[in-house]
Amino acid sequence: MMSKTLKTRDHHGADSLDIIIPVDAVREYDINQGDVFELEAEEQDGDVILRYRRVYES
Predict the structure, then answer these.
(1) What are residue 44's DSSP bridge partners?
(2) pLDDT at position 2, please?
């Protein structure tokens, strides 16, 4: 399992935010532009937990 600290970025022209996938993860897990991910979000003990699962590989 990989653990990294990430920062959100403004998504120009939208209210959403971007989270950049670090190059280490991109290479190790062969993540490509166009891959589609499902997001599960929950709160546990005051922490926000975000889980991304790839549902389509481009």
Answers:
(1) 47
(2) 86
Alpha-carbon span 31 to 58, nearest angstrom: 9
Total count of domains within the chain? 1
pLDDT in tens, 30-47: 999 999 999 999 999 999
Q: Which domain holds residue 28?
A: 8-56
Q: CA 25: distance to chain centroid? A: 10
Quote the pTM value.
0.80
Is residue 36, in this structure, part of any structural domain at all? Answer: yes
The DSSP annotation for 16-52 comes to -EEEPPPHHHHHHTT--TT-EEEEEEEEETTEEEEEE
